[in-house]
Amino acid sequence: MPRASAKVENAVESLDESIFKVARMRPERMLEEYRLMKYDTINIMAIGFPNGIGVNDVTVGVDGMVRLPYTGNLKLVGLTLDEARDLIHEKLSRYFKLPELNVYMKSYGPRKVYVMGNVNAPGIKEMGVDNMNVYAAVSAAGGVDRKGRSKHVQLIRQIDGVLYYREINLDAFVKKHDMSQNIALEDGDIVYVPDSGKIIFSEDIAPYINLYATYRTIVRD
């Protein structure tokens, strides 16, 4: 469970590894474990027919749903490719005898994170699925500026209406190769680099948390 040490407007500091996972620099098994997100595009192929039967370019909508012939709307967001295959097969089997069905990843949808504070180019950054980590996000924002504190980077994430945050020592990752300090990001995360002064949560972090609802509206578009 998250370790609560400070709260500002339903914000909870957490070292829980189930919430903030260490980024995998070589994601060999990423596709097997990958869970579909909005704007991902898949191809569906029914196996066992002479010329093959399938549906291409099926994109997960912003609501997490896809619309397929016969099945109507199906919620695929959050499912692995195998889980999506099983669900689609189950629905289509009501109308057809399908010996086997495969679901292929065609393209990943864009991910957006907001990099704030003392970086050279703050703002919303569109990240590739293989670069969703704190180091890559700060790099996309031009790196830490001269006043920034790379030892005290803050990562903010919303889960089920609760805002979790964690401090990250990016300096230790860069200089000491401490892999535990490079956390995997999720769509909609905020990365905040504080200045060289002492961090006061209510003054430095809370204002960004108060902007979170507006930011989430932006990244859903």
UniProtKB/TrEMBL annotation:
Q: Which GO terms describe its biological process?
A: monoatomic ion transport
Give one Pfam hit by family name: SLBB_2
The Polysaccharide export protein N-terminal domain sits at 32-105
Q: Which InterPro entries match?
A: Poly_export, Poly_export_N, SLBB_dom
Subcellular location(s): the record lists: Cell outer membrane
Give the way it sits in the membrane. Multi-pass membrane protein
Q: Where primarily located?
A: membrane
- The SLBB domain covers which part of the protein? 111-193
Please provide, alphabetically and separated by semicolons, the GO molecular function terms listed in this UniProt record. Answer: polysaccharide transmembrane transporter activity; porin activity
The cellular component terms of Gene Ontology attached to this UniProt record, alphabetical and capped at eight, are: cell outer membrane; pore complex
Keyword tags: Cell outer membrane, Ion transport, Lipoprotein, Membrane, Palmitate, Polysaccharide transport, Porin, Signal, Sugar transport, Transmembrane, Transmembrane beta strand, Transport
Could you say which protein family the record assigns here? Belongs to the BexD/CtrA/VexA family.
Which PANTHER family does this entry report, sorted A to Z? POLYSACCHARIDE EXPORT PROTEIN GFCE-RELATED
Q: What is this protein called?
A: Polysaccharide export protein
Question: Per the UniProt entry, what species is this protein from, by scientific name?
Answer: Anaerovibrio slackiae
